[in-house]
Amino acid sequence: MGLFRNLALAVAGLGKDTPLGRQERRGNMARRMWRCYYQGKYTETTKHKHKRALVLTARKSVGLFVGLLHRNEPYRSREERRT
Question: CB pairs under 8 A, 24+ apart, for 2-6?
Fold first, then answer.
């Protein structure tokens, strides 16, 4: 359970920031997207806001990561896919 919590916190941009070198800009855009998703779910909920938003963010991210690993492709944010 700790692994998924740390993953969701990192994806939502709530954990430690680690620079990614050349991909830092791409990571920042992705982090903003996940942070917006987390904040949206946080405001939707009336009870246990952080816990619920964290679980929903983790579910979405795990589904995304499994799909990317299955197709063997790198993550690209919506902004990157549009260009």
Answer: 4/58, 4/62, 5/54, 5/58
